[in-house]
Known about the structure:
Ferritin; two-stranded antiparallel ribbon; 51% helix; 2 domains; 10% strand
Amino acid sequence: xxxxxxxxxxxxxxxxxxxxxxxxxxxxxxxxxxxxxxxxxxxxxxxxxxxxxxxxxxxxxxxxxxxxxxxxxxxxxxxxxxxxxxxxxxxxxxxxxxxxxxxxxxxxxxxxxxxxxxxxxxxxxxxxxxxxxxxxxxxxxxxxxxxxxxxxxxxxxxxxxxxxxxxxxxxxxxxxxxxxxxxxxxxxxxxxxxxxxxxxxxxxxxxxxxxxxxxxxxxxxxxxxxxxxxxxxxxxxxxxxxxxxxxxxxxxxxxxxxxxxxxxxxxxxxxxxxxxxxxxxxxxxxxxxxxxxxxxxxxxxxxxxxxxxxxxxxxxxxxxxxxxxxxxxxxxxxxxxxxxxxxxxxxxxxxxxxxxxxxxxxxxxxxxxxxxxxxxxxxxxxxxxxxxxxxxxxxxxxxxxxxxxxxxxxxxxxxxxxxxxxxxxxxxxxxxxxxxxxxxxxxxxxxxxxxxxxxxxxxxxxxxxxxxxxxxxxxxxxxxxxxxxxxxxxxxxxxxxxxxxxxxxxxxxxxxxxxxxxxxxxxxxxxxxxxxxxxxxxxxxxxxxxxxxxxxxxxxxxxxxxxxxxxxxxxxxxxxx
Length: 577
């Protein structure tokens, strides 16, 4: 059992030296094997010697060659295991010493059993509402215990495997290619497992995840990326370049898995289509400006995808766009990726001297679009519920916190951008403790945020922006005195005798709360075109390419770009309702 004192006082330099010695031995042995193989090939296998004796000699030499190859593999396994021991113990020791130093700096006392004590509070401290020494002590004690446990776990597993390798070296049972390969695999898996065992727990703050990541060596980081791309790629707090590398690996894996599943369900086919669309989008963007980063991909729920144009860890202006009704994974490699790129272009035009990152974030399951309700969707009220938005809002807040944690240099100008039901998602997330952490929130085509006022979004109301086309049916559902056709609302609330609906309710109230475009909500309303009357096109064109034929979105996407660039004085305004 590893103790605090043993971990604290251990001189671990010998382990790395021993690993280096085995590396040298393994390298020299490999040259010996190569030299022997060359001579055997030259004098025996390439000769004209034939007959039973030649056959027996060839078989014996082949067995010897296999045993030598196995011996080399076993040496490499020992070297790798010693290096794993060195890295694992050094990492645990580093965590322990960091916690001990913090305790000393805070005036706390750490016992040999890992307990943390503190002096009685002074009269002033007893009445200070910010006095948190007991909480800090408990947190430090937990970190100390975790470091010691991590080292003990590594010690037991490494000792067991090292004993096995030593036994096989002594008995010669390791001189078998299959056994040697199994031993090397066990060492590789142990190393990966030891690193993973030291991961921050599920639910850890992105700042803690980022600190853990920075504490790993580059080799350790690469090992985890290749061993657990599915876990690292979606972990908020991991830098964008590492997430991109992990997600590209996981994307290829997911496509391979789904392509070999055989008959796919409709939901599985939809995911495969999405994975392929993302792969194509990434391929198409190679060598172009801005570069594309895959910040997330998984098969969770309806499928997850996060694509960024530009590196959010280095960009000065960063926007994260949340789509809404009817969005599927294919849109991350299709129309919603295009919208994110349009925002990047608009922001770049607004301030060509500032670096920008613009992303599409599909980290939740949007409900089906209203058009699906007309196709006999069996769950029409999903679109009228906030369940998915609440879960998505919490995930989005964590993602935004991760962007803050991994950003390099001065803090970025961070913008939460949301469309349709995505604005409900962002709005509910903004009302949770801590909010989105964004500097600006942009809501377009919103059916409401669940808030009565912009001030409830954990942000200065002057930095809440609303774009709302007058003919957008979603942003008028169900506002007082507004008429919607049977084709739009019939599948939701049933047929009307006169073929239309007159929805009565409080002034400027939408399905999910106060109309964000209203005076009562108190946000800035920027100019967008009215759009085609009673058409879903009016709900879909806020971020489409303003250069497209017949587009009415020039002012809309340009205004969004000005906000993302922080050029508020260039935004054109529209009167509130």
